[in-house]
Fold this sequence. Notes:
The structure holds 2 protein chains of 2 kinds.
Chain A: H1 2-5, E1 17-30, E2 40-53, E3 57-61, H2 68-75, E4 83-88, E5 91-92, H3 98-104, E6 108-111, H4 125-135, H5 141-155, H6 171-183, E7 189-193, H7 201-218, E8 221-225, H8 229-235, E9 238-243, E10 246-252, H9 253-258, H10 263-270, H11 311-315, E11 321-324, E12 327-329
Parallel strand pairs in A: 3-8, 3-9, 6-7, 7-8
Antiparallel strand pairs in A: 1-2, 1-4, 4-5, 9-10, 10-12, 11-12
Chain B: H1 2-25, H2 29-51, H3 84-120, H4 122-137, H5 140-151, H6 155-165, H7 168-181, H8 185-192, H9 197-233, H10 244-253, H11 262-290
Helix pairs in contact in B: 2-3, 2-11, 3-4, 3-6, 3-7, 3-9, 4-7, 5-6, 6-9, 7-9, 9-10, 9-11, 10-11
Amino acid sequence: MNVQAKPSITEAVPDDILLKVDNLVKYFPIKPGFLQKTTKFVKAVDGVSFFIRRGETLGLVGESGCGKTTTGRTVLRLHEPTKGSIVFEGQDLRKLKDEALRKKRKDMSIIFQDPYSSLNPRMTVGEIVGEPLLVHGLTNVQERTKRVHEVFAEVGLAPYHYRRYPHEFSGGQRQRIGIARAIISNPKLIICDEPVSALDVSIQSQILNLLKELQQKHGLTYLFIAHNLSVVKHISDRVGVMYLGKMAELTTSDELYKHPLHPYTQALLSAIPRANPEIKLDRVRLAGDVPSPINPPSGCRFHPRCPVAVDQCKVVEPEWREVRPDHYVACHLAN
Amino acid sequence: MLSLAVNKDALVLFKKNLASFWEIYRRNTMGLIGLFFLIFFGLLAFLGPHLVSVTTLVVDGVTQTLHPPTPGYWLGTDNLGKDILAGLIIGTRVSLLVGVAAATISMTIGTIIGIVSGYYGKTVDALLMRFTDVFLVIPWLPLVLAMAALLGPSLGNIVFVIGITSWAGTARIIRSQTLSVKERPYVERARAIGAGGTHIMLRHILPNVFPLIYANTVLVAAIAILSETTLSFLGMGDPTRISWGMMLHYAYEMGAVINMAWWWLLPPGIFVVLVVLSFTFVGYALDEVFNPKLRRRDL
Lengths: 335, 299
């Protein structure tokens, strides 16, 4: 994409940028049968570029299956990227060998969507939270316990929770355990993979506020993945909108909600329910379903469902360009 | 002060887990019968040598050979005048010992190969599983006989031979469970924090395949006891120890059948069947407790 065409961008990443992802691609092979050759791929992430500044929150929204979770995991190399570069603190993560990557994981962590299955049912909460320290060489039990209790206090867990097992906790408390575990190694970047979508509404805001509080206190940087636009608006400085493995639009939170340029973003925003029944909704309704990521449409991937598509959209893939300062969009019609 | 309170917590939890385990287990009639017999044989093995006097096992002359059951000799005597009941009781210890020891060896090998193979996948998996297949398809009895003959008849060798030849099925089962466990989110999470393979296998996968290991150990123990009996019957046993297999061996060799000495041939056979059955019953019951899908719905 055109970001790559700009010279010297990967070599000299400005210091205020913590993570820079360029043209990230992740294809999953489909094996038709035993010993048969792979002929098809699920193009989960197909050329995504973005950067995150230190201390900010970048939201990532999109429908189910648009590749936002895969993007988050590929950034951490939990999935091996097919193509592209992931520059974290000036270092290309794709070039790291296994052991170096393992050590680097201290600086990056992830909070998972499902607080039930992501905690090992046979470990105590203390062991779960202290595990990153153990893995990174802090073998002294007393020091580890002390640090775990510090983090417990920060996320709002009580000391006596230390020897309890995960099944004894509610969803919100489990997500606190997940957060405690994510921050204990003092990471710089945390990927929040739909951290509140499995929780009920009253708990969601508690967890979001906790995340914000921790961000201010420790200067954390978040990549916040969600499908709930209100949640993303609440927490993010900038927001990226994904559609079928591609980034459609990326800009500051305010700009995105006030002046969305991509027709897909406009449709998404018009679908947010309003609390006031007096407001006349001018909904953009999208026809049809999301196409299959195995055979994505030609040209602009959104054209079969786009209300304003022209002939050019069916043939030519739109460029990822900066139409206004800090406002990126991939659409032929946006100005 | 804190740690004391905390330990009490863990103890209460343990008691709670044990209570709920028993709550499910006791609904299983088969499991209860099996457990009863296991405890019975366990006590017999433990107390055996104190229950019988050594003199009943001494070859005591011509008058009382091949005597049918009478008071004093409740199960009669063999061709050398030794008390059958005393032999049975003494033999329990050897049979159970071989069963438990061989099962331990077998489970250790099977678990290691299963977990490593399942976790690393790809080439490691292919190599280890082909190796396992070799052990699965080799005709078991000739292999065991050849190995036992080569190593010579001693209890240790018997345990070794049985242990080393019976792990293949276990490795398969553990591997399949590992494949399932390693895809769970908490394992991915462990990788995300930078945990290495050894850490993940020991801390995350092993504890979560353990229920399967328990249940399978009990089943393998049953097979091991049967194997010991088979080997002894075929004359590969340790001639210096009394075991049920050895008793059957001598009974057969010395013409118990021709002499219609049913009291010599039947009791060791029945004991072997009972022990194997009780191990199997307990194994199935444990499987049901640990595998909620097999549990009855009326809970």
